[in-house]
Amino acid sequence: MILPQVESEFYEFATAAFGSYLLGSVAFGVLVTKLMGIEDPRKIGSGNSGATNVLRTGSKLAAALTLILDAGKGAAAVAVCYAAFGGDAAQLAGLAAFLGHLFPAWHSFKGGKGVATFLGVLLALHPATGIALCLSWLAAALAFRISSVSALAASISSPLWIWILGRPDAVALCAVLAVLVWIRHAPNLKRLAAGEEPRIDFRKKS
């Protein structure tokens, strides 16, 4: 079975989906940079509010905070709904929070690419899989030194990891999240094909 067993009531699903979407819509990259008095990430680079683009402001602290908070909102949505309603509602909450990050209601439906929130959702839903995905990201980053390749590799491996590690009921969720991550990385795929995607410089000093 690649889908969760449906046990929650309709109102529980509706509450989980709506609340998690609104939480996911909070663009922490915008809030963090505003509070720190640095450039709005939506006006530079790719124009999205994710941690990678926040890093282009030159502030590693702002990028790190954005990464943690974007992952945290995905994890919080899953954890709260799991405790309140159960595992099936928690999976829907994870998807809703992720969609909120991609298409935030508070910011004209223009959000980030979802990698941090994706990892947060999986870390809360099934910690072993979340850790495996973080390690997959790191391995790809060390091998290819391209952030987008790391994100794409981690996301596409998620259905396999969660199946192997004992949560086949969440395979469908991982597959949907992975497809959305790849869709949001369409510009990166074009740059990769052209050999123009920037590389990670691990030797760069702060």
Can you describe this structure?
- The protein has 206 residues and is mainly alpha-helical.
- Helices cover 67% and strands 0% of the residues.
- The chain is built from ten helices and no strands.
- The longest helix is centred in the middle third of the chain and has 25 residues, at 60-84.
- The chain is globular and about 45 Å long.
Largest sheet data? none
User: How many distinct beta strands?
Assistant: 0
Question: In percent, how helical is the residue content?
Answer: 55-70%
Element string (H = helix, E = strand): HHHHHHHHHH
Rg value: 17 Å
Count of alpha and pi helical runs: 10
- Helix/strand-derived class? mainly alpha
**β-sheet strand percentage:** under 5%
The overall average pLDDT, rounded, is 93
Shape: globular
Q: State the separation between the terminal residues, measured CA to CA.
A: 48 Å
Poorly predicted sequence stretches spanning 5 or more consecutive residues: none
Question: What does the secondary structure layout of this molecule look like, with pairings?
Answer:
Layout: H1 10-24, H2 28-36, H3 51-55, H4 60-84, H5 87-102, H6 115-125, H7 127-144, H8 147-164, H9 171-184, H10 186-193
